[in-house]
Amino acid sequence: MDTFAIPRSVEWRETHITILNQQKLPLATEYIDLHTLEDVYDAIASLKVRGAPAIGITAAYGLALAASHYKAETVHEFHSRLKQDRDYLASARPTAVNLVWALDRLTAAAKDAASVNEAKTALIHEAIRIQIEDEDVCRRIGEHALSLFRPGDRVMTICNAGSIATARYGTALAPFYLAKEKGIELSVYALETRPVLQGARLTAWELMQAGVDVTLITDNMAAQTIKAKGIRAIIVGADRIAQNGDTANKIGTFGLALLAKSFGIPFYVAAPLSTIDLATKTGADIPIEERHPDEVTHLAGVRVAPEGVNVYNPAFDVTPNELITAIITEKGIVRGSYSAALPALFAKEEQHETI
Ligand code: MRU
């Protein structure tokens, strides 16, 4: 079977963008077409497309698509319109840095264009490049991550850092797909991930599609499962990694890292360089998105809490660097002193590019 018969989350169609509506999974595999900047903003804000790299790819295509319709007469006019639209899309969700990373990469790609048409083409090419690169990056993350596991390992994860959260393969889920390709047996224990159930709806669905052994648990079963099932490691994705290694990821990640420490098992973060934000020095500087109370008071549209109850609904938490055993990137596995090691990854990249 083709391990990657998993649908792509985002497709560029020149006149529009087609996305897999992740809100509807696993009950329906529905695709929706995005035609305007407002469609793209709404798809990101309402989690129809979610996961840091997939958000970045969608936003990049969204900006390129919007710009393709500009009636600007001068390059200057074009850039001021582009800046407005860039800022609008950047405000769709605050935590995943891949959103602004992708938008800024696009803006930079069009910066030196000699004409409006050249700028429009540059934006489209750059957005396509971001998606193509992300697939390769995720595969390389998967190869590095797989080197940390032994056949038969049971590994825990939270949220969905899988194929549909990226261009393909995912970050935290990539090693399981590669293991499957190579005939290595690994088992995944997926937390359901309240409030919006990315683990139950998306991770369980995509791993099952690929024939990866996956067991679903609710979030409050993590400690008991680590003990009873002999979980060997925890691996998660990331929405933003500060220069010192502090990592924002789906709410519940921090608790898992504390459990990993308590049980003496490794806690791994798998993420591309596009998720590392050297401008953010520590986790204290990462904005944490708070979402609508309905996500907590309702389950699948049905109210499960009293009307008027106070609700706190942070979508992410920050795991302090000292709880992270290693950060797995496309450039390799980083351990220990993240403040020095993470910037060095970018320095290596520049050297590599200029050789
Ligand atoms: O709110 P979401 O579903 O966008 O949150 C996603 C996560 O927290 C993922 O773990 C993270 O973006 C990594 S996706 C490769």
Describe this structure in words.
The protein has 355 residues and is an alpha/beta fold. It has two domains: 10-137, Up-down Bundle (Four Helix Bundle (Hemerythrin (Met), subunit A)), CATH 1.20.120; 140-354, Translation initiation factor eif-2b, domain 2 (Rossmann fold, 3-Layer(aba) Sandwich), CATH 3.40.50.10470. The chain contains eleven helices and 16 strands. The strands form four sheets. A seven-stranded mixed sheet has the order 6-5-4-7-10-15-16, with helices on both faces. The chain has a four-stranded mixed sheet with strand order 11-8-9-14, covered by helices on one side. The longest helix is centred in the middle third of the chain and has 31 residues, at 116-146. The model has no long low-confidence stretch (mean pLDDT 96). 5-S-methyl-1-O-phosphono-5-thio-D-ribulose is lined by residues 50-53, 96, 159, 161, 165-166, 170-171, 198, 237-239, 249-250, 315. Substrate binds at residues 50-52, 93, 198, 249-250.
